[in-house]
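quick one, 299 residues, struct below
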Amino acid sequence: MFSSYSIPGKLQWQEEWSIIKSHLLTLMKPSLRLDLLQPRQRLALEFLQREGVEDEALLFLYDQLRDTPMANVLAPLSGLVPVRPWGQEHWPQRLHFVAGPYGAGKTSLAIRMALNLRRVSPDCRICLVNADAARGNGRLLLRHYCELSELAYKEASSTLELVAALNTAERQGFDRILVDLPGMGREGTLARLLADSGLAERCGEDEDSVAVHLALPPHYAGRELHAFLERYRTRHAGSLVWTKLDEAEQYGQIVNVGAASGLPVSSLSFGPGLGSSLVAAKEVLLWRLLFKRELPEPV
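---
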């Protein structure tokens, strides 16, 4: 999971280390003797390379496969891309923040996650809190689907209103509270937003008191995705939700982001509809998506 940071020079240090690491990988890459692998192993790595999987992940996979001729590439891939399916069993936290950059499908994701919970657990009492109330379209969409699906709906146009809405929702005894957080520009961070709103203290030191789910589409560039990971870094339990899967041509970024963040994939989101277009993540679904470009079946 992510850890928070507050050291002023850390971002500069991270950028410098990224450059150094890139040079090291460039030097190491000629020693990547794919001809030493079994044919099926070599074909798998060559395919992943074409799909945009970065050198660091490829070197890890190569190292895992080189001395084990019978090994399947899926075993080390599972170490790079962990899975923790969305649902009450694996995500027992009462409070869930849905975060992500502008245009990533974050508001639709919040609705889909709530509807998925409701479908699996009809008795689960769910409240959706719109903390991105300044955006009119998202506001109308959330309110409309909450009314249709008999989900509780609250709005918060400021940090003070967000704290008040969460206090009210907790007093009303909802089993799950999902918060659609606003997007942030380059200068903002989720850690700062939680601190400024007082939610950092409210969540306490327990890393598992809340969960943060980061919505990302796989067709963003690698540099942007790494920047988003830094921007939405927190100390709390979290997951990745891959959105807009039907709009992407390749899915190598799923491996890159998993390796860079260590966060598990909780859900896969796709298609224009909202009621049956999110599925809990499973390894088999990820590998079909990655190697066959096969979208999950709607449920």
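Residues 203 and 209 are 6 Å apart (CA to CA).
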